[in-house]
Amino acid sequence: MSVEYLDTPGFHGFRVRRQIDNRTYQEYFSLKAAGRPMRGAARTRVRRAAEARDAELASSQRNARERAAREIHFDERGRVRGILYRRKKEKNGRTTPLFQIGIHSAREDRLVNTTVSIWSHGLDEAWRRAVDFYAKHKRIPRHSSAYRRLLAAKPDYPELAERYGPVRPRRRSAAASGATARPPVRAGVKTPVE
Fold first, then answer.
1. What pLDDT does 139 receive?
2. What confidence category does residue 170 fall into, taking pLDDT thresholds of 50, 70 and 90?
3. Angle at 159 between CA 156 and CA 162, to 5 degrees
C-alpha cells in the first residue's frame, strides 16, 4: 500500500504515490475542512477515498508490469535485447562461444540468466534453446508470431565468424580424424590386443 499519512506545517492528510511506466502518480487527500482538522466519519471517508485511489493505481501498475514483462525489444541491428553472443574464457585458456540470456522473468518476478554453449549444441540448436528459455520466462507461447520473430532474429554465422573468429565443433569424430574407433571397455572383461 502506498498511502502515507502526512502531518507537516504545509499539509495535513494522506498522500498516494505510485510509479507506473516510468511516470510518478502522486495525489493528496486533505484532512482539513474550513481550516480545521477533520474528525470521526469525515476523516474515515477521506482515508477510504485515498485507499480506493491507491487500489486503482496498484491495478494499473500491475498491468503495466505484466505488459512490460511480455514485451520483446530489438536493437537497431535487429538483435534481441536480453540474448547476447559472448565468448567465455575457460580455465585452460580456450574460449567458448555461447549465448548469454539475462532477463526479468514474468514467471518468477526476478532476474534470471543462463548460458547456452554453441560448441555443445551448434549455432541453430543453441539459438533455439536460448529463445526457448527467453520465451518461457517472458510467457510467450511457442505458436505465436512473437516466438517466430525471436527465432528469425538469430545472428547469422558470417557475422559471428567475422567478429569472433570461426566457430569450431568441440569434438571431432573418430572417422573425421582418420583414427580407428576403439571398442568399449567393460569391467571384468579383457579385450584382445592385436
1. 85
2. low
3. 145
The DSSP annotation for 103-143 comes to EEETTTTEEEEEEEEHHHH-HHHHHHHHHHHHHHHHT--TT
pLDDT at 168 over 70: no
CA–CA dist 145, 162 (Å, integer): 30
DSSP output for 84-100: EEEEEEPTTS-EEEEEE
Residue closest to 3 by CA, chosen among 22, 29, 23: 29
With 70 as the cut, is the pLDDT of residue 189 above it?
no
Task: Indicate the helix (H) or strand (E) that contains 4.
Answer: strand 3-7
Query: Residue 109: left (phi > 0), alpha (psi -120 to 50), or beta?
Result: left
* d(C-alpha 143, C-alpha 59), whole Å: 29
DSSP 8-state code for residue 157: H
pTM of this structure? 0.55
CB 48 within 8 A of CB 31: no
C-alpha cell at 143: 505458436
